[in-house]
Write a structure and sequence with these properties.
CATH architecture of the largest domain: 2-Layer Sandwich
Number of helices: 10
Number of strands: 17
Distance between the termini: 40 Å
Mean pLDDT: 96
Number of domains: 2
Strand order of the largest sheet: 16-15-14-13-7-12-11-8-17
CATH topology of the largest domain: Dihydrodipicolinate Reductase, domain 2
CATH class of the largest domain: Alpha Beta
Strand content: 25-35%
Helix content: 25-40%
Largest sheet: 9 strands, mixed
Structural class: alpha/beta
Order of helices and strands: EHEHEHEHEHEHEHHEEEEEEEEEHHE
Low-confidence stretches: none
Radius of gyration: 21 Å
CATH superfamily of the largest domain: Dihydrodipicolinate Reductase, domain 2
Length: 386
């Protein structure tokens, strides 16, 4: 099979940069792909951050501390960029202006204005392909729900609930980092960091909220810095958004939640969709388990529980009886980006990464949530279906 190679540069050296790089080294798990990523360059501000990548990426020929060197290199076709939110607009726009395809971390700009700046750069460079990261919908159970939605299985939607919870901030003595400071993370707090994961499937399904009531919480307002001094922690820790969706054909409530302080939860992503003809629920807490219920008049109402195994969007060499995990979801997301970049409307499966337009809708929802928290009122989004 002829195979097209996409030569990537990575900007950033944190956990997600290493996850992405590792995913490209596992490409042999995807035997049906006609495209392959190859990491050829890396940019990180601190020289010591480069060593893991240069030691583990055999094709990485360019390791620099100035990301602009990646952007001027003819060896680089696309860039995966994983940097703090306040750097999204300047770096993403530079990547786009340089004509490099972009897979950028969420929220695709620290705020609504920064997101608009990125999208304006994309409009000026229609030759550049860009997507936003969101890996959880590529878990087999979540992906199966996507297929149910595409097949219109649910009938009239009754309600939707989706969320991403973890407990990493429950310890008040956990040292502060950039995600807990507005100047780097943005005013969205946990919503900016986690919200796209929660909204990816709803927005892909055309479920832009018509209105939002935001309930945001700051549990710990101080944390120690690296020297043990207590400093201000000024971002939102938890958020619950009560929304109404009105597509013209469907009108239903949708409850969204993002939590950094959810006791006992270890990065638990979930979605539950209740419909008049069919309902489905999936959570990464039980990664092999998919719950569904078919309703037929006169029949008992009974939820069915089944193990879904390794039924991924892109076929893998891993046997279907085995369990799927977070690194696998990164691999599948990377595959979706590469697939759509090369094949566009002829993707090998119909569910892709979050689009720039998705990120714009996502920012409108998050901005409305901040306004709702400030005023204590429901905030209506104009032209919510756009």
């Amino acid at each position: 099979m002829d195979e097209q190679v996409i030569r990537f540069g990575i900007i950033g050296s944190g956990l997600m940069a290493r996850e992405f790089a590792s995913a490209t080294l596992r490409w042999s798990h995807l035997p049906t792909m006609n495209v392959r990523p190859e990491i050829v360059g890396l940019a990180a501000r601190r020289p010591e951050s480069l060593s893991w990548f240069t030691a583990n990426l055999p094709n990485c020929r360019l390791a620099v501390t100035d990301y602009r060197e990646l952007l001027t290199s003819p060896q680089v076709d696309a860039v995966y960029c994983a940097v703090p939110h306040h750097l999204h607009a300047p770096l993403y726009c530079d990547i786009i202006d340089a004509g490099k395809h972009l897979l950028g971390e969420k929220p695709f700009g620290i705020d609504l204005a920064a997101n608009a700046q990125i999208l304006n750069s994309l409009r000026a460079r229609p030759d550049v392909f860009a997507r936003c990261t969101s890996e959880f919908p590529f878990f087999p159970g979540a992906y199966q729900i996507v297929k149910f939605l595409q097949a219109n299985r649910f009938g009239k939607i009754i309600e939707v609930e989706a969320g991403l919870w973890h407990s990493s901030d429950l310890d008040p003595m956990k040292p502060i980092n950039w995600k807990r400071q507005v100047q780097f993370n943005g005013k969205y707090g946990c919503l900016g960091d986690l919200g796209m994961h929660v909204l990816h499937i709803p927005l892909h399904s055309g479920w832009m909220p018509h209105n939002v009531r935001g309930l945001l919480s700051k549990i710990f307002e101080q944390r120690p810095d690296n020297h043990g001094n207590m400093v201000r922690c000024d971002t939102w820790d938890n958020a619950i958004l009560a929304c109404e969706v009105n597509t013209g054909e469907q009108h239903f409530p949708m409850l969204l939640s993002t939590k950094r302080i959810a006791p006992g939860e270890a990065n638990t992503w979930f979605i539950k969709i209740l419909g008049t003809e069919f309902s489905a629920e999936y959570t990464t807490k039980f990664p092999k388990t998919l719950r569904t219920m078919v309703f037929k008049s006169g029949n008992p109402q009974s939820w069915e529980v089944r193990d879904i195994g390794y039924a991924s969007a892109y076929p893998s060499i891993t046997g279907p009886i085995f369990e799927f995990g977070f690194p696998d979801s990164i691999l599948q997301m990377c595959a979706a980006f590469c697939d759509e970049l090369v094949n566009r409307e002829n993707m090998r499966q119909p569910f892709g990464c979050a689009t720039p337009e998705d990120t714009a809708r996502h920012h409108r929802v998050l901005t409305a949530a901040l306004e709702s928290q400030r005023t204590g009122q429901v905030v209506y989004l104009e032209h919510a279906t756009n």
